[in-house]
Amino acid sequence: MAMYVVGHKIPDSDSICGAIALAYLKNQIGEEAIPSRLGDVSPETQFILDRFGFEAPELKMSYAGEEVYIVDHTEKTQAPDDIDKATIVGVVDHHKLGDLTTSAPLECWIRPVGCSNTIIKMMYDFYDVEIPANIAGIMMCAILSDTVIFKSPTCTTADIKCVEALAEIAGVDDAKALGMEMFKVKSAVDGTPVRDLVMRDFKDFNMNGNLVGIGQLEVVDLAVFDNIKDELHADIAKLKAEGNRHSVMLLLTDIMKEGSQMLIASDDEAIIAKAYNVEPEASKVWLDGVLSRKKQVVPPLQDAFAQ
């Protein structure tokens, strides 16, 4: 029986490209695998797939009775809804450990790096499998996306070295320039429904029994939100009520200024204030130097909920 390789709900480029790259590796070493996804691809991810000639993986929402290899998370809130009825055979991730559990031993590749595709590159090296040029290209782009073209505090030497190696395989002369093209695609928000923007890169977390949603929009200039910021703020309040969440935050991240404005809808803003040592004004706050949800936003908030 073939395993399905799948990332998290509302998949980003790491989840989609990682599923494709890992499924190819597994097939090369004699383990039948099919890449899949839990949602629509983002404009950035579509740009990457088009650039290197890939179709999006199969959209598959149910995995009951299947073998599943999880990419880019270990959180039940981000996994398939019926993951408890599936057999998890492996995990590749670069986040904190979540609450997924298994009844049998599994393969785990978890490293404190900037992107799951960096780990998948290490897996290719371990198994001594040659990476095709087009797969190297999407892996490289996923790393550039997750590390914000090496600006994120999550970026490591391993991420940079992997991008350099993958760029050579893919025949890309200027990886950073391609990364900027990707972020310009991310910055094109005109005409996109507000809810689609809020959900473009959105993750739910269980924080001490409280459901907390955190979205992020990374752009090259926050001015693109000037005419819709109030609408975005109103929509996260609606999303909070619809999902019975304690809080929903939306990070508007300026990759050039290297900081984020956080829009907040919360039952208790004091927790947010405590987490980041700031005082929100009109349910907004600027977080200087904050680029990473994984490293700079989730951990202090989780700690604040635990106190």
UniProtKB/TrEMBL annotation:
Entry's transmembrane regions: none
SUPFAM superfamilies reported in the protein's UniProt record: DHH phosphoesterases (SSF64182)
GO molecular function per UniProt: inorganic diphosphate phosphatase activity; metal ion binding
Coiled-coil intervals, chain numbering: none
Keyword field: Hydrolase, Manganese, Metal-binding
Keyword Manganese belongs to the record: yes
Cofactor(s) required for function per UniProt: Mn(2+)
One GO CC term on file: cytoplasm
Catalysed reactions, semicolon-separated: diphosphate + H2O = 2 phosphate + H(+)
Annotated protein name in UniProt: inorganic diphosphatase
Organism: Pseudoalteromonas peptidolytica F12-50-A1
